[in-house]
């Protein structure tokens, strides 16, 4: 899981130095061009020479590593740090790009140290083009990896092979350096921190915990799933910058689509539920997990049991970890799939973790978007879980609900749930023409452009259909999916939830948060309790969870 450096820089970066994150690339090209000009023989190097690799490796360990360690400690002196190295530490949360964020002097020092092994191999007559590319690319990759802020190495690796602790650093190891700035100065080999007495003794235990996701057991989990191949790239551990903005299909994603498609098949075949991101609220850890299934999988008849198995395993894992609430997202609570979560509660009646679909708050958000004074609404998806709850709530308010459904049996079943004096406000309709004069449409089932044409100009479309309908009518307005903004004291919101802005989550996610904050002891699965819609809405507002 990601690991965050929280140290806030107190020494300002030097204003007189203009820097760019690609300075090191420009410098490396200039150094390579200078070497080719000064030593023409380099233009005739062979493609590969294994002996050169051995010489370069030896010089890297014997020269580059100790010299970098000494230079790095020197840059942490008061004078050099304030004038130069403070810029590199100005990123509160390291990213791979942080590796190249430094002043020209630092890039020059690093470039010269990187050139030493290559120069030595060439001087010994063992240089090669392949070595130059392999060493430089590996060097830059390891630098970026150390700053990536996501633990990549299995914790068991260093327990099984303890000597590796001194041969290769980890993202956790270097994040400790960025957090405290008093330990873990090495380039790639912690051996030199050990020799210099600057190795943080907690480095490997913290690495193990971060890799296992054990640094803090979550209290709340939102169990999502992947939407599609494009959206699968909208996660912090793939592209942190992209994930920090609302999802939209971008041109730069298109060349990556085949790779993402390959990963989809790999995830489908082998993956288990994994952590996407997390944040803190009121001192408690909230995590977003993802079932390794994509949206289309939920519509494959043969995939149903496998999906439920994944969700069940995630719930049981949360139970073992001491999680208080697991909130099911989107299709993970589909009625046809598992009865809105009832399958798991019935199968495991002694669950301590509360399973929640969060749709009570979703219904409340939609209902509170309807303008006061409305006397009539038209609704598609009217006999669904959300449609039923919305219809029953509105009829209690003496609002006429035209329920679009061809199933008289399902309509009458819902109508009979209403009080006798309110049943007259629930009306079954079977054609869109019936809603021509209605200005308030609640959409719980996809509408084609042809079907939308029946709405009169000025109609507003409220939505709880996934995916949301496309806005074809310019003379009408379209609401977004029900969502709420998390409280202002939420911390660590570094990524966006699908197409929502940072800090805004889908209403079912917020519903799970309310369930946790209120300490409700019941499971929220199956049919929505209409009597609790106002209760949950007021609880959300009380905790600072606001409508968008």
Automatic annotation (TrEMBL):
UniProt domain Very-long-chain aldehyde decarbonylase CER1-like C-terminal: residue ranges: 377-547
Residue span(s) of domain Fatty acid hydroxylase: 58-198
Entry's EC annotation: 4.1.99.5
Keyword Metal-binding (UniProt): no
GO cellular component terms, semicolon-separated: endoplasmic reticulum membrane
Membrane-spanning parts: 108-137, 247-270
EC class name: lyase
Pfam families per the UniProt record, alphabetical: CER1-like_C (PF12076), FA_hydroxylase (PF04116)
Enzymatic reactions: a long-chain fatty aldehyde + 2 NADPH + O2 + H(+) = a long-chain alkane + formate + 2 NADP(+) + H2O
One Gene Ontology MF term: iron ion binding
UniProt family annotation: Belongs to the sterol desaturase family.
Assembly with partners or alone: Homodimer.
Protein name as annotated: aldehyde oxygenase (deformylating)
Record organism: Aegilops tauschii subsp. strangulata
